[in-house]
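Entry 14. Ran structure prediction on the chain below.
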Amino acid sequence: MIDETRILKNLKEFSFPRLSGTDFEKRSFNIGKNKIEDLSLSPIVQEFSFSIFYSRIYPKVALTLLSWFIVVLVLNFNLVFNIVNLFLIFILILILILYTRNPETIKVLHEYHSQNLFVKLPSQAKNEISDYNIFLFSHLDSKGQTFSIKIRIQLYYIWIITFSLGLLITILNSFFLTEDFFLINIFAILIISINLGATVILWINKTNNKSKGAIDNASGISCVLELLHYYSNPKNILNNYHLWFVFTGAEESGTMGVRNFYNNIKDFDRDKTFIINFDSIAKKVNLWDHGLLNNKNYKSFNYILENKDIMSLEKKTHRFYIGTYSDGLFLLNKKFKGLGNGDKSTYNYVHSEDDDLDKIDINILKKLCQFYTVLLSEVDINLNKQ
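Output, structure tokens:
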């Protein structure tokens, strides 16, 4: 049985600042570990170290180089200056791209430590289908920033639009217009000024440990813990699917936890494995389906329709992201199928001091957990019918 009181208790326990790599994150890890052990289960701990270069420094450096690239092209100082600058920009960006291909291995600047926590509930399956798995993810850390996610995403959109316009103006000036076209040149200066301004503001956006992270992601942790409690009861264990409950560390530092956890599942069959990610749920639930829901899930679709005032099935998430990332998106890009859970209306509060308990409707979390008891039961039963 899904217990609203237990969900609220867990939500309160995890709603405190817990920046990745700090003792605060370690505290959330210990709380989670104790709760798993209280269910007479033995969790696995995966320790890892990481650098903040990829999540906090690399994007700002890359944007600065590209902003300067547009300045050089649009203002067109002189041939030698342009060639030297464009060459240096190309080399530096190439170095950054190559260096960050495997960000979990980067060890520059200060080295921080974190840990993943996970437990497996084996299915009752026979050996021939024992390689079917469902993973339920949430992340243990939180972070505060100078600006909320909504503002940061808007800044990235402004940057992208002005960068694109800068390129367009350069093309027009090169092929169609003369250098004396006054209005175009004034417009170009305005565009690159806005682009540089967005870059400066993004540099000002600093990470801190001031957000309680109730929405992001104590809500997700509470859901995964409640589902773990439900399925730890032997009568609720699935017949065919192993269930994995995963609590990642350092998600807010470039998804370092799931990048390290991926080594455990990289060889899993994508057709027999599903990923479910719980992240930032408050007043509503947006469901992003990537191959878990199908036309055989009648009860699940009916549940969504019966709760359409709070639950909505969204279009698939784009693999390309702007301004935000998650464990679910990382695994989606690794070709795993699954379902993401979130609340788009939370962007005004996430990563800010306003990310607090009063923003969350506990009944929403309860209904989401109930939905997954229905869905996972259907997925399990449908496998027998294949």
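Residues 56-101+149-204 form one domain. Will compare against last week's run tomorrow.
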